[in-house]
Structures are given as structure tokens and as C-alpha cells.
Amino acid sequence: MENQVNENMNIYFNIPQVHGLELCREEGKDRKIQEINNGHNMNLAITKCNGESQGKLALVINHYTETLNQEISHLLGYPTNQSFDYGALAPLMQFHINNLGDPFIGSSYGVNSAKFEVSVLDWFAKLWEIKKEEYWGYITSGGTEGNFHGLLIGRENFPDGIIYTSQDSHYSIFKIAKMYRMQCIKVSTLITGEIDCANLKTLLLAHKDKPAIINLNIGTTMKGAVDNIDMVIQTLEESGFTRDRFYIHCDGALLGIMLPLIKQAPVITFEKPIGSITISGHKFLGCPTPCGVLLTRLEHTNTFSKDIEVIGSRDATISGSRSGHAPIFIWYALQKRGLIGLENEVQKCLMNARYLKDKLCDVGISTMLNEFSNTVVFEKPLDCEFIRKWNLAYQGNIAHVVVMQHVTIEMLDSFVDEFTQKRAIWYGLRKPICLANEIGAQNCACMLHK
Ligand SMILES: Cc1ncc(COP(=O)(O)O)c(C=O)c1O
Questions:
Q1: What are 66-99's pLDDT values in tens digits?
Q2: Which domain of life is it from (predicted)?
Q3: Measured from the CB, is residue 224 less than 6 Å from ligand 1?
Q4: Is the CB of 375 under 6 A from ligand 1?
């Protein structure tokens, strides 16, 4: 894929053709509607005067719960952890808890969970090695909002800065660049999916006059690849970018919390010259609603935060009203498991990911698994029904399974068995395509490379 620069500072999106996507969407829509309507009316009739009886509402919810449980038993392609029990927090459903403003200041709206929020942020400050008095952060609505915030700080520091991000970055990065009207340059990737520092260097040298705002992936969406922080910093220095001329934001949606819990993994730390990190709270931690964590250096927030009288706080967040439940979910997830519990969960995910990779290899399917990653990449199945059943995410010729905590060995066995049987039908006498360009010749099981 080409780097996306042009003279007018516009960003061009090079969206890959996704064959059969429309078909899958349409079929999926019909199926979901049929399931939901299966005798249980979920329509909201505006004209209805009386409230529905508790019994009828309970029927709808019970049916929906069954549908969700069925879906989770086949949920393999998305990095959400479905293995949790937040039942103990049910009493909090009676409150609208809202964390307006700066969590370290609180606000004039008293029904807030700012104390939980700060306690969670302190935990992450220790994890990513930054002193209490040197950091600032907040609980976001998800990894995307964290990226919005991180890149905003980058831009406020360097109004004429250029965003550099690998072509494998999450789509939110390109959207944010467009919304902020910033020049964004796509950097090519290695086969693993990590940023290609040789290409980064060429691009940096071609734009030496402008500061660099780097978005680093701590786990890319499709391949779970981790950009090499040290090598990127070295590349910046070698290209003549001193520390006062670059800003690094780390998009750690899934692996930003998992890597620090693995002993041999690359270290994610504010002791390196990075400016911000974000993760999603509903991914590894398994919060029941989308949420996330954003941490940055205190000095950065001062540049654009503002005191707001009406909320009795300082405005430094992207959104105004923020979920007060989310910090409590994250706090509970951390407290309940403790560090050892979390480390064990990471190990289990990595082990099961290796199990899946080996199993797919054994049946002759092209497969790749990056070190320290729980994302198993393989050839895209040819059948929409199969992709939908297992909730697989795909791009071009590849698909993936993200082995999260709820994914059992039994689920993986049954997935591989069905994949193998269906594959024999899909291909018949035809040979599966070569995936050397996508996952490397050593991982490709086509006739030429196996
Ligand atoms: C690398 C990466 N960044 C950001 C996001 C966005 O996170 P969220 O869905 O929490 O907004 C994702 C989501 O999968 C991701 O994989």
C-alpha cells in the first residue's frame, strides 16, 4: 500500500476491497431480526399509553439473554472478554453516576465516582511507570476516545506536526487525522504487522521541517503486532528529530495492559519519551460496557484545559458527561483478580492462542501468531455463514481469532473441526490461495510454500 501524502495536506483513504461484505451484512441482518422477533416483541410503540407489564418486559430480556449466551459460545473474532460477573455491582444500577470534568478535581455534581476513577488511574500509572505527581488521565468511553485525546495533545504541542502511523493502524487514527485536519502519513509494515522503521526513516527525512506526531500500535487490530518503541525512538533521533520535535502516542487498545503482565515482553513505560497511552477497558479487562483508560503527562494537559464554572471543574476531556459506572467496573475488575489473577489470565490466553495456531497448522491451514499476542491470523474462510457463526473479523485474504478469556479449548476444537470440514467443500479440488504476502512464506501452507 502506498504512503498517503499529497501536497494539499489531504489524507487519502486506501480502503481495501472487502469481497462479500454486503452479502454477509444483509444475511446477518435478516438472521438477527428473526431471532429477536421469535415471539418477543421489542418494538417501541410511541402511541402506546400504558407501560408494559414487568412480566412481559422480563420475557423479552430473558429471551435476549439466551440469544447473547448463544452468541458468546461462538464469539472468536473480537477482542472482548466475556468471562466476568459484575452481579455484585447490581445495586449501582439504581444511580445515574456521572463523572463530569477533571477526575482529580471532582465536580459540583456530587453523584460521581471520581475516587474510583483516580484509584484506577493510579494503578495504571504504576503499571506504565509514571510518578503520581507527574501524570494526568481519565476514564474514556473506549480506545477510540483515548486516541482522540492522545493525538489532540500531540497536535496542541505541535500545531504544524505531521501524524505518522502504520498502515495497519486502527481506522480511528485516520478518522481522527481527518477530523483534526492534520496531515497523516501511512508508514508501511513488516509481515508481522509492526511498523517498518526503514520506511519511517525515509518519510521523516522527507519532512524534516515539520515536527513528528507518532501513533504507535501496542497490538494492531488485525495481527496483534507491537511496534518497536525503542527502534522508533532511535529512528527519530537518527533522522534529526530531537525530543522537543516529536510526540509519541501509544494505542494499546488490547495489548497495552497485557504486555506489562508478561515478563519477557517489551516494556511499556513513561520512562521512555512517550506522551500518552490508551487502552480499552472492555477488551482484556472485560468491562460490560465500552470504556477505556487514557494516561498522559500532567504538563501536556495544562496546554488546553480550561476551568468551567457551571460544572465546578476543569474541562480537559473529550466528552462532557462521562460514565461514572465505567471507573467502578474497571476498579472492580482489577481488585477482584489482583495482579496474579491478571497475569494468569494473560498466560491462559497466550497458551490457548498457541494451541489454536498449532491445530490450524496441523490441518494444513496457513496461520500466523506474533510473539506475545493472542491474535491468531489465518486464511479467510470462504463462507459468510461460517464467518458470521464464529463472529470472525477479516480483512482482504486473512481473518483472525482473538483468544480471550471466555474462549475455551472445546470452542477452539469445534471451530477447527468445522473449519476443516467446510474447507474441503469450499475448495473441492482447488488449492487454497498463497498467503506469503500477508503472513510470510514460512507461515503459508499453499502448494508452493508448505
Ligand atoms: C489497535 C486498536 N486501537 C483502537 C481500537 C478502538 O477501540 P474501541 O473499540 O475501544 O474504541 C481498537 C479496537 O479494536 C484497536 O484494535
A1: 999 999 999 999 999 999 999 999 999 999 999 9
A2: Eukaryota
A3: no
A4: no
